[in-house]
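S.,

As promised, the NAI run. Input:
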Amino acid sequence: MTNTASAGMRETAATGAVTTENRGGVLIVTLDQPGDAVNKVDRSLGDALERVFQEADRDRTVYAVVIASGKPDIFIAGADIEQFLDFRTELDAENASRFGQRLLNLLERSRVPVVAAIHGACLGGGLELALACQYRICSDHPKTVLALPEVQLGLIPGMGGTQRLPRLIGVRNALDMILTGKNIRAKKALQMGLVDEMVHPAILMEVATQRALELADRSLKPKRSATQGLAGMALDGNPLGRAVVYRKAREGVVEKTHGHYPAPLAAIDVVKYGLSHGLEKGLQEESRVFGQMARTPESQQLIFLFFATTSLKKDMGVAEPAPIPKDVEKIAVLGAGFMGAGITAVAVQQGTLVRLKDTDLARVGKGLAAVREVLKERLERKQITRQQFDDMLALAGGAIQYTGFGNVDLAIEAVFEDLGVKHGVLQVVEQLIPGDAVIASNTSTIPIARIAQGLQRRDRVLGMHFFSPVHKMPLLEVIVTPQTAKDATVTAVAYGRKLGKTVIVVNDGPGFYTTRILAAYMNEAGRMLDEGVAIDALDAALVDFGFPVGPMTLMDEVGLDVGGKVGAVMAEAFGARMMPGEGVRRVVESGRTGRKGRSGFYLYDDTGKKGGVDPTVYELIHGGDRRAMPAGSLGPVIGIEKHEIVDRCVLAMVNEAARCLDEGVLRSARDGDIGAVFGLGFPPFRGGPFRYADAVGLEEILSQLDTLDGRFPERFKPASLIVEMARARQRFYPAEGRPVR
Ligand code: NAI
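Predicted complex:
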């Protein structure tokens, strides 16, 4: 080690990502990977740590070790997921896990006590490292969160997490963390025994060093109670109780995932195995299963989505060189309805000053009340403080006149879905806002060029298509026309990202991308209704495929009036291919609006809670023709198998997505997959319509489309891109390796 500071007392050495300093017998190990904003567990960090631990074991001047991070608000962000792409076999992944486990075993069995001083995100492999330490102290900072998020990538923890966590905090709490991947904040971590102590960040290192010395001279013995509380004792502390915990966990997973995700179930088995066979065998099992999971199709799709999202964060949606986005500090939102209020609620949370305008005070008041509700929920969940709540609410100002528009950076229109109304509003707005402000429409169907046509500053106009509910849905679809200025696009993209959204940029057209492929899918469901398929059979089939809700429930949620308008615009633009079903048209015309009106395809109680299918709706759908109706609302499908329901709806969507790519509405298959998964709930474990098509095989997709085209002329004519690619035996993504950059 090189001697730098005051002789003998302080020695520092750097081994790549790791710096060490001997502070009076306590070796401070600082993790700080060069050239990266975060620390990630990878081979080089592992090698560096291994050398440090071996050295610390030999060096008799070291009595204890403290591991900390040199990054501002990150302890360790988790494993370097890039390395997962190099796993070609289960054994590759298993070996990587064994390597990590060996390292942490070395740490756990170290001659001297090791303390983890955690400030910032301590995730995945980072938490597993902390778990192998004898003592954990964390800062009480909001950025300090602990989690094992591996299941979100279709994996299980692979560096001892499935073994050490239940031994530390009990099976129930451990499974809760492992099966959800959720973040645990500092205070909760302390309560559940995940950390031993919580202190202010300013004294974290001082206290950690002190505790390290106390552990070394045995004046401190960490308290351990893996079975927190009485209920915990009863359930976690004996095999019978644990059997209940495992069974409940399994039931919970199956209910939530419909059995589509193997990793959570595998994690339960590995935890169980380890607790009955001992740590050593448990670790072996963990590695074996980690290897298995790393090669599942589900994990590969989830890892693809992770990289696609990461690569989108760097994509400004315009050809390079991209201009610098303008800072958006104040916005105007036109229309205080459902969407306008939702947009306002997410904007004020990012410190944006919002002018929310509607036509009368009652509507403005209703909009502001809706904003308040969103913020209140965050307050109740302790995600924000009372002070933050007040500050955020104060940023939203209602208006019925166009006052305060003179200094906005962006105006977002969310008035009725009517071109005339939109023109009326935006023509006034463009006169009032600064010349370089961006003019955005939240329309879900109307081509942006048609909106721009009525305006003078067409280069400032684009679409910012948010999804409902705005505060929950992760996608923003930015729509540009050939006239949209690059700086307007990058400003909208950057602002969308600031609001926490994953942003795709698409080219203009009726329904853009998301609404267009959704319409193809919904219409096909509508056609099957006409053919006599039961409403709940349709929904069940697509939920079984992996959508969060089926198409008929979705139509009730979106609103039948809204869906009806969208359907009409799409039919007008694309003709027979996008013609909605007759039955749906009749239901829309009857005035049913879905859940908001407590009357749709399903029954709703006064609170809006969904019941069973409303049997009377079949009369409407079939125009009173009883012969066409399904036998009972739960009745079997008339002449149509479940797989046909899925194939017809999903292939209609895939085919339309391919057209969007071919026509240049989409800039890449990646954007199409992200848009479908994050905007429409396309099953994440299937990766999106393009990844799904690759998995099924384009030749097979083409052959199925040809068959359907024969049966239903006009609707399933294969997109020319699919025909060409299938003939040339191409795929949308490479078969292996890094799919997106
Ligand atoms: P909404 O009916 O809840 O709200 C529209 C609001 O605009 C009403 O409060 C109305 O009073 C107001 N308004 C009408 N004329 C106005 C004017 N001249 N000046 C100011 N305000 C005016 O409708 P919603 O659902 O919020 O939709 C708004 C827009 O967002 C539509 O273009 C819709 O297509 C689009 N959209 C809707 C989604 C949804 O799920 N509801 C999803 C994505 C986009």
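Residues 334-340, 357-359, 363, 414-417, 421, 424-425, 442-444, 466-468, 558, 562 surround NAI (CB under 6 Å). Residues 1-11, 632-637 have pLDDT under 50 and may be disordered.

- D.
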